[in-house]
Amino acid sequence: MDDGSIMTTRNTSRGQTPTTLMHAMQVLQITASQGPRGASIDDYLDALTLSRPTIYRLLKGLKDQGFLRPAPTRGRYLLGYELLVLGSQAGNGAGLRDLTRPRLLSLAQQFGDSFYLFAPDGTNAVCLEVQNGEYPVGSFVRATGGRVPLGAGQASIALLAHLDIQERESILRRNAERLERDYRISLDAIVVEIEHSRRVGYAQGVDGSQLPEYTGLAIPILDHSGHPLGAMSCSMLKSRMTAAHQRNVLQGMQDEVHELRQQACGLLYVE
């Protein structure tokens, strides 16, 4: 499962990122890793090779811009609300999140399972929205904004199945070690499921060791050229995945995606 560890999903080497910007991003990630208690100056000092005065300057600058705010516990910092404002826009490319949210809620209320919206993000799939029904279950992601490497989970299979083959193979090569180490998922099993997904029009995740009691389904949300803008996903207990339930959930998701595309008209396009 994606553990949210610092600086694992982005290349932030000095040769590619201005130093001050890199340090500011690290401060934000350290803050996020400390959760609701907030991060202290010692947390930053332990994680960064920066002096105390430099860290205080970074903290002040980020706080002035709204990216950090004081925690209830004196001397600690939480992520600022400005990130929430930016995040709501970043997670709503082409209006996809706004269009999908009520449809996920409707599906969750109708079928009782957990429904998600994922989008491709480099070599990862990022969760843009989640709605839980009467029988909520666990997932590889903990909440909106969580990431998993493409290849883990049914949504990422649906996304991979509609990428250009060279892009797909490149992503899987880069993710192979992590998928095997952290999820116990092999590339051979992923390729088999991708081929199945392309034949039947929906995806099921590849079984690994992380969530053995759960299963799921996903269908892609494609633009006019067939490129995946996102994937609508459902997670449930394996005991609930009867043939009738699978058929009904798939039909419900397919209907919602079809209506979403009709509602969006020309909105769901990639330039």
Automatic annotation (TrEMBL):
Tell me the ranges covered by the HTH iclR-type domain, including all copies: 18-81
Q: Which GO terms describe its biological process?
A: negative regulation of DNA-templated transcription
- The highest taxon in the source lineage is Bacteria
Q: Which residues cross the membrane?
A: none
**InterPro entries in the record, alphabetically?**
GAF-like_dom_sf, HTH_MetabolicPath_Reg, Tscrpt_reg_IclR_C, Tscrpt_reg_IclR_N, WH-like_DNA-bd_sf, WH_DNA-bd_sf
Q: Which GO terms describe its molecular function?
A: DNA binding; DNA-binding transcription factor activity
Mind listing the UniProt keywords for this protein, alphabetically? DNA-binding, Transcription, Transcription regulation
User: What Pfam family is a match, any one?
Assistant: IclR_C
Q: Where is the IclR-ED domain?
A: 82-266
The molecule here is called: Transcriptional regulator
Q: Which organism is it from?
A: Chromohalobacter japonicus
